[in-house]
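Sample entry (252 residues):
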Amino acid sequence: MKKFLIAGNWKMNKTSAEAAEFAEALKAKELPNAKDVCVLAPFTLIGGLGKAFEGTGIGFGAQNVHFEPSGAFTGEISVPMLKDLGVGYCIVGHSERREYFAETDKTVNLKLKALLQAGITPILCVGESLEIREQGGEQTFVAGQVIADFDGIGTEDAAKVVIAYEPIWAIGTGKTATPDQAEEMCAFIRGVISGIYDDATGDSMLILYGGSMKPSNAKELLEKPDINGGLIGGASLKADDLAAIAEAAASL
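Predicted structure, serialized as tokens:
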């Protein structure tokens, strides 16, 4: 049976009160596959979500982390700090981190290794800009990201990583890659992983689509054989919308 993960990325949104209200609304939905849903929140909200989702099966996690366990890194959060809060997931290398905060494949690789060592599931983001796609270089670019990001990671650990394909041109723009475009790239990424490791690793890896998935297009995207879920941005801010996407996955 095909596996899914519906991951809500709140980005820099919500106060503690708003997060608590959301959690209660989502729990009231009694999701059919709650364990296949997680919310990735700002650091200030993680502890509260952990308590709110306790016993529900709904996962929670962070949007970023530092690769060092401690040190003079003002403003940063370490893997042990996340572990202390009981997080199950952490985004690594989101396009906004790469574009605005100088994230590189080298630091992404270090973060992946630190999270895997701690038993936290990384959600690795890869994807190309509109300029790269228009030039026909999207596969070369994304393959380069994947190869660099997995450098030095063994097969057993690699199988624990979730990959989110996020076409940068479809984030926050209202544009969405067509289901065929999304499927093509997710299948390509699966092939790259199979090439680095083996077919079993590639076939079993969860590969999400991360470009403006919402209730109106979720089922059409999730029906594609190589799309195992979504990294949901704007639609994850409303419990009704996130639940609708999760229910679309559960129906397949």
